[in-house]
Amino acid sequence: MIKRPGVVDSLVYNPAQLDMRFLSIVGNSLGCSASGERLVSAARDGDLQEARELLEYNPRLVRYSTFGVRNSPLHYSAAQGHHEIVTLLLESGVDINLRNYRGQTALMQACQHGHWEVVQILILFKANIHRADYLNGGTALHLAALNGHTRCIRLLLADYVPSIPNAWSILWKKCKMEEGNSEFNESALLQVINKPADGGITALHMAALNGHFETVQLLLDLGASVIEVTVEDGTTIDLIGAGSTPLHYAACGGNAQCCQILIARGASVTAENANGWTPLMVARSWNRDSIIEMLSTPEEIQLPPTPSPYLCLPLMSIIKIARECGWRNSDMLPTSQDPCVVCLEGKCTVASQGCNHEFCTRCALYLCTTNYSSGVAKGPPGSIPCPLCRNGIVSFTKLPGTRPMTKDAARASLSLSFCACSCERPERTLLTTPLCKPPPPSSNRVSPLGSSFRSLSCRKFPSMKLNSGFCMGASDTTPSIIAGSVHQRLRNHLTTRMMSLRRSSSHSEGRKSWFCSLNQYATTSGA
């Protein structure tokens, strides 16, 4: 009975084929890694052209992540504030909620560094704001509050603050919510804004500790609780003690404005934590002499309930319109139609309720995200002033001619696990292209500030032939990158050597002879 060779037997019988498959995997993996590192560098340095060219050739590179920290190009571009590259990566199909080794998403890193333009793009693409990192359980809201990035907080909570005139009054319990108003889910807002990290620390604790008064004011206006206390979890280092309120943390930070507004909003100056310390005792132990008198006589503190200048009511309405109809000024403006009065370029797509002045979606978004003034002539708290008549804008509505965006076809799975992209490509043609394009002679390219890389000239590299199945091609795909002038001769030579090595009796001798043959051929070809 003749035994039919299996998979293991075929590998033993064909040692040269095993070597070729191994080198093909290693070579193509190194090729993916090199292209991925180029995309990471482009994302970190803000090189939009380089990133676009890499993604046009291999869209799967959006899922590349660096070794160790596992930061993707989306993480690097978000941390550096390159919102155009963030948009490019998201449109290329990257997972918007990718995590690095700490469990942080791109939204967390953008909030940590205060890049509100990136936060706006990520919110428009519906990034998850509830994700918590692996180290301390902090969300994007915690990171924004820790560093005092109030604009980022406003964008993070845009889906929870409705565009209704009495939103601020409802939060202050001055009026009841109208029946049938499904936009305002107050319990969901309170749950998000009071979500604790490890140790029971809320966003208000972090903002009060670091003395970010504007952030504290906005959080209080949106319903942050002044009676939330920290807990002892055995992992978080708490120098104040468990059971501490935001006022304890404000006393430790020593900011008088934060202490004043917390006391005015109902924080207790006599509350004791697990160590038996009151906020006054915390201030004394940390030598915060400037607030000791204020904590000793809290009855003298009287602050009028003024809304935060960062409160923006029309933000929810314009974000919904932007998600549905887009926010880029890509349509050609007809000659008979008046352009947007702000940018004088875009097509008017929205109108403000009340004064009915028309704007493009992009400018309306800019007005809502950059507004820092509650001084409007007519309007409820939280409305933004119209740039034309100064009346308060509470919400935006779509114009009748505004059409929704057409949904793109479903993208293929963008996995990078030994990318088998060549198996999905029907073309077998070889594309002759430079390894990297040199800059035009007339352009003077300057490396972005803060970059750890220097601009390198690639003019010395000759033209290369890139196989269409560059990343882990099929079984008959040639390895990685081979110079165009020697590609066919080297392939024929290796095929001949493989056929001869199949008749070799020793596996080790076959492997050795194959490497020697390759080195010998490379030496003679180079000579």
TrEMBL record:
What Pfam families has UniProt attached to this entry? Ank_2, RING_XB3-XBAT31
Q: Which GO terms describe its molecular function?
A: ubiquitin protein ligase activity; zinc ion binding
Keywords per UniProt: ANK repeat, Metal-binding, Repeat, Transferase, Ubl conjugation pathway, Zinc, Zinc-finger
Keyword Repeat set for record? yes
The main enzyme category here is: transferase
Pathway as given in its UniProt record? Protein modification; protein ubiquitination
Residue span, RING-type domain:
340-390
Chain positions of ANK repeats: 69-101, 102-134, 136-157, 199-226, 242-274
- Return the EC number: 2.3.2.27
Entry keyword annotation includes Lipoprotein: no
Q: Which InterPro entries match?
A: Ankyrin_rpt, Ankyrin_rpt-contain_sf, RING_XB3-like, Znf_RING, Znf_RING/FYVE/PHD, Znf_RING_CS
Give the reaction(s) catalysed.
S-ubiquitinyl-[E2 ubiquitin-conjugating enzyme]-L-cysteine + [acceptor protein]-L-lysine = [E2 ubiquitin-conjugating enzyme]-L-cysteine + N(6)-ubiquitinyl-[acceptor protein]-L-lysine
Protein name (database record): RING-type E3 ubiquitin transferase
Native source organism of the sequence: Carnegiea gigantea
